[in-house]
Fold this protein.
Amino acid sequence: MGKRLSKAEIQRRAIDIRKTDLGLTEYVRLCPYELAREHGIAVHPLGGLSEMGCPEESVAFYASERPDVWSAALVPAGTGQFIVENTSHLPRRRRFNVAHEMAHVLLEHEFDRVMFSAEGRRGCANPSSKDQEWEAEELGAELLLPLVAAYKAARERRTDEEVADLFDVSLLVARWRMNGTGARIVAQRAAAKRANFRRGR
């Protein structure tokens, strides 16, 4: 694993992926399921894994007893891989979960741990470093709600609820992108500068 990618590099990659893979600008809603299909990555519900070789007791544990402990995972299958998602989560959270796993695929992350196993044939893989998790979290969010789109929404004084609806993300993600990235602070400072300039003319 090399040096962790910068936020600027992740933003650049997200814009390129949106444009090259799906023909989208930064201001258009992205469907992570379409992105997965574009890259030949199937997305399956957890319940279907028992038919694909995962132990039924493992599937039952994560589906019924502890649905809160996981969101989605990449599953090696021969020379390829697919995504399994926790369908007990709300649709907007599932969109983020799939975007996160696709970020691992797009960043070509390596994996070293198995969550499910089936006699060594298949397993749900987890990333081998915290840096990889951070990169996937940032790229997944950037794909769904690019920083430049957050800046635009902040300039337009959109609420978190409006942003969540516009990009079909959870309210938690909308708040993170609008506040945690500094989008609203940047917009407020820019508005203050414009106001001061007008007063000074």
